[in-house]
Structure to design on (924 residues):
């Protein structure tokens, strides 16, 4: 899968998730401190997140696959893109990196190292949003890998740019990042009590995307053959 | 044209149109809920739409051609890029997908499944805008396919990003998406009664682009030959 | 230079300049109508202009070179990238296209076909801005063509995106577009009386870039040789 | 390293740093003059800076490496990507270019040639921000060069786009640019007295990135071999 050993791959997953979370949390704090307009705050948050995703996936993808996301790692483990024996390590690195990212953002903005978020994100509309968001993310990754591998960093960055706006939840779509965001009481936070709902919705969306893509991305051999036979 | 069978192609057209409409409608609802500034609302709507177009055309183009648009499918059917026997199926998939996209956006934001739009979009300036918008879209697609096939997802995403702002209608440029947007009474809606005017203008613009491009994109053999003869 | 005959090349120059001006003028009208914030207005204007430049240069570059700009055509004529006998036709096509673009934008927004702009843009700071803007544009094009031909559409789109903000004049950098913008009394207009100052500054900047690039982009053969001799 | 002689490389470094600083300073002045919203001001500043970085690195990279940054040149000198005898010249060219960029921006906006900034940027949170910002920048450059050389202009432009928002200091990440920005009393300025703290933090971050990348980017030969042996 990669010629890098496990320690380097785990550091890449941890570092990437940390930079991602530091960007999400930090840009939310920055934007909220500069403007009263919540639309503009989300815009600053979006730009920074979309941009850093392209960068991180490009530079760390060749080392670890740049998953930064337990839902993605789960799909990769199921579809044998990630060796099953590495799955646990990846999840732990992502969680540790995510928490470190929140702490780093707080240090950059002079906030307490961690704080529990008080931002409620719950209910059917939010869960459906997270399911759709993660469904789309996993579909983009699986189809991107198949059709246009080198574009995947851009596809993910652009997808999240859109999903920040088209979902009611601003598209967490990542259980480790959601956990890390429960430790900040700022713009991008989520109450710890709301995590399980998000996690379930994200995993459901990811699995749904895997099921659909397993069918959709495999050319229908029989009917193509018969269609060619007609030519 | 593609090695994927018709069911997969129709699912790709439906899924892509659904994701596109969910993005257009959803990001409009999100943006309007976060800011009072209509310029900023259109900006959030634009960013999300432009970004998702690049993504959807990249990942679904290899399956179905990623047309998501009856006006484009019409041009492709006329110019034999789409088998005529598939034309009807494509249109139905796009319409069904578009409606599903509106419903999905409404579910994500806790709105009624569908509602009739009350947003008036009519009159000569609007129709001329839609004609120009669709003319440009089809010209971009036809020239892009000829000169830089792999850039087409980017070209379409960037073109629509611009056209949201340079047309008075915010550039629907898509009869199926327009229909789906008549079912939401939010920022991106259009009154059902205004649909026929938009449809006619869009088809007229698309046909005009096909006519121009048929001449413009074919190197003028005679005069080039005579010019080469002079060298 | 291209295998397209002169009529097609002139239509490409005219169409491209028309689409460019329609975008500049139209997005300015749209943005100014949606928000009171002039910063946000320029942002909408910038996004649309940068995006359409990438598109237009990609799809029309293979036909005519996608110059859309008399200052660029002048530099190309001097440096023999454009046959001198085509220079006059290119300029006329660009001017006609530009005026058509303003008219098209006005039609889309229900304004009078043309109107004289009352927006003053004059004085040393404005002229220096235009000189810098056009210097940069021509340098980007010449270096881009030399080092990374296929990236030129992106480089020009991104350069203008930046130059809209880093110059006091919002970077017209184009005599034909400036002329066309004197015919709209909206956000992006310029008083006809201010055109000569802009034109002179733009041509001076373009020529300065040509002189610098003629030296800078040619590897210094002697000193490189002596440096290699030392290895 | 490059087939261009030292004078051309130094001009490229100076010109590039000048254009970069003119963009940072000029877009800050422009944005602050158009809007009262500081979030929007930073957005205009960000867009222009990110865009010009992609352009400048693409067109000047083939000549000088497009470092524009003493912290980057230091890392390149240590890792033998820049001949040590050229290091001093590069730094001087970057400083001279940076100061010229501030002057050019001031001329474009009708301000005094230079003025001392009164904008305080000091304290642990700011220094940590600069350390993180420069750490990330150097890591992106080193990994980008290794894995995806041609994407480096995009990676740097996108990284800085994000870092303007995720750091409390808006990510100067460049000692020469910081110096040049101490000479403008506008949005992007920094008090001269605050420079040493920024410089130290930037160099510390750069060196930390070099140390990490030296380990991270080298595939772990032994453990990969043993892992392959198991297959």
């Amino acid at each position: 899968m990669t010629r890098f050993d496990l320690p380097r791959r785990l550091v890449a997953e941890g570092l990437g998730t940390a930079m991602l979370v530091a960007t999400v949390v930090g840009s939310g704090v920055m934007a909220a401190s500069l403007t009263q307009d919540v639309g503009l705050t989300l815009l600053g948050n979006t730009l920074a997140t979309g941009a850093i995703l392209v960068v991180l996936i490009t530079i760390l993808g060749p080392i670890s696959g740049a998953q930064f996301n337990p839902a993605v790692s789960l799909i990769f483990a199921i579809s044998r893109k990630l060796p099953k024996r590495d799955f646990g390590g990846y999840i732990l690195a992502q969680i540790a990196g995510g928490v470190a990212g929140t702490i780093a953002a707080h240090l950059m903005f002079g906030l307490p190292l961690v704080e529990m978020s008080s931002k409620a994100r719950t209910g059917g509309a939010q869960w459906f949003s997270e399911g759709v968001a993660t469904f789309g993310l996993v579909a983009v990754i699986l189809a991107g890998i198949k059709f246009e591998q080198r574009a995947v960093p851009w596809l993910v960055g652009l997808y999240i740019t859109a999903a920040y706006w088209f979902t009611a939840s601003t598209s967490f779509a990542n259980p480790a990042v959601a956990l890390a965001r429960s430790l900040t009481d700022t713009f991008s936070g989520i109450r710890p009590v709301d995590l399980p709902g998000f996690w379930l919705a994200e995993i459901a969306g990811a699995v749904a995307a895997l099921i659909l893509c397993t069918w959709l991305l495999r050319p229908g051999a029989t009917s193509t053959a018969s269609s060619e036979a007609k030519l």
Chain C has one domain: 6-218. Chain C has a mean pLDDT of 95.
